[in-house]
Amino acid sequence: MAKKRLPKGVRERNGKYHYRYDITDPETGKRKQKETRGFATPKEAEREGVKIQHELISGTFVEEKDIMYNDWVDKWVELYRNRSINPVKETTVRLRKRSLKKTKAYFGGLKLREITKKMYQDMLIGIKNEGKKRRTVALVHEACPQMFAKAVDLGLIKSNPTIGASVPAYPRTVEQLKNKVKVPKFLEKEELALLLKTAKEHGTPQEYTTLYLLAYSGLRIGELLALEKDDFNMSEKFIRVYKTLCGDGKITDIEINTPKTLSSEREVTFGESVKKVMEFHFFWKNQYRMSVINRYYRDKQNRDFAFVNCRRYPGYPENAWHIQTKMKKFLQIAKLSDSLTPHSLRHTHVSLLAEAGYPLEHIQERLGHENDRVTRAVYLHVTEKKRKEAPELFDQIMGSF
C-alpha cells in the first residue's frame, strides 16, 4: 500500500505532524531550519505552515523561545522591580510576585509559548473555584497581562493569551445584599478615653502619644510611623502627610514610600490638645535621644523620625507590630475588646467626627480617601438616628400648613 503523500513542508514523526520552515538567524545572518510543534493531523500542520509563511513574507514573524513559564515569571518580576519608566514600590513588586505565584500551580510545567487563551481563562476560573475572593483573582489578572505583554514585546511569544480574558463573575448573595458593607469595630467616646488613660498609666510616654495621635488625627499607622519632626507645623497646627512606612516586620528593613493615591497626600489639622501632647513628646524624645546618643540611628537622609524605636535599635522608626501589641495589652487591662487594632482608631476618629456632625466629604478628605466604602459605612452607622429623625422633622415643618 502506497504511503499517503503529505503536504509540502509537513513531516511525520512519532505519530505527530510538524511543519518545517527556514528563517534567517538575526545574530549570524545565516539560514537555519525550524520546525513547529506536533499536530494531530497533516492539515493542521499545513495550516500552521501557511500562517508562518505569511508572517515571514510580511515581516511579522516572531520566533517563539522555549523559556519555561516559571522561569519567565521570576525574570519578569526582576524586570518589573527595576524598570526605569514609571518605577514601582517594593510593596507593589511583592504584591505582583504573590499573585503570580498562584499561577505556577497551573502553568508550572509548561513553556511560556504553550499557554493559550482558553488555558488562561480556565486558570482564572480555577483560582475562583479554589474559594479565593474576587480581589485575589483580580490581582492575578492585573499581573499576568503585564507579564505576557512584556514577553510579546521581547519577542518571546507571538501573542498575549490574556487579551479578551476576564475575572469570573462573583454573584452577590441575598445575605451580602442585605448586609452591604460590614461596619468595622471602633471605640465609643468613653471607651477611647479609657484606653488612652490606661495607656498613659501603663505604657511609655511614646506608646501613649502614638495611640493619642492615631485617634485624634485619623492617620494610617504607616503614615504616622513615617512622620518626621519637620512634618509638624506647630504654629499653624497641621501635619503634612506625604509618605508612608513599609516593611516586612524587621525593624531594620524599612522602606519609606509615597502614598498610594494622590488623595493621601494632605495636610491634617489638629487642635490645641494634640499640640500640647506633641510638644511634650518632642521634649521627651530629645531627652531619650541624648541618653543613647552613641547608639542612636540616623539614616543617609538624616531623617529625624517623630516616633522611634526605644529598644534594640534606638532611632529607627517605631514598629507597627509593637504598637499593636501594646494596644492589645492596654485594651485587656481596660477590659475592652482586644480584637481592636491601631486601624480601629482611624474608624473611631470617623465615628466621633460623624457624631459631631462633621460632613462625610470633609471626613474623607481628612483621612485621605477619595470615596472609601468603609468610611461611609461607619459614617452612616453613626448618623442613622439622625437620618431616621428626618421624616418627623419634615412633618413638623409642614405641620403649620
Question: Key features?
Answer:
single chain; 401 residues; mainly alpha; three-stranded antiparallel beta sheet; 15 helices; 8 strands; 50% helix; elongated
Mind sketching the topology for me?
Layout: E1 10-13, E2 16-24, E3 31-35, H1 42-58, H2 69-81, H3 90-107, H4 117-129, H5 134-153, H6 174-179, H7 189-202, H8 205-217, H9 221-225, E4 232-233, E5 238-241, E6 244-247, E7 254-257, E8 266-269, H10 272-291, H11 320-333, H12 342-355, H13 360-367, H14 373-382, H15 384-398
Helix pairs in contact: 2-3, 3-5, 7-8, 7-11, 8-10, 8-12, 12-14
Taking the alpha carbons of the first and last residues, their distance comes to 106 Å
* Number of contiguous helices: 15
- What is the helix/strand order? EEEHHHHHHHHHEEEEEHHHHHH
Strand order of the largest sheet: 1-2-3
Q: Output mean pLDDT.
A: 87
Helix-residue proportion? 40-55%
Number of strands: 8
Shape: elongated
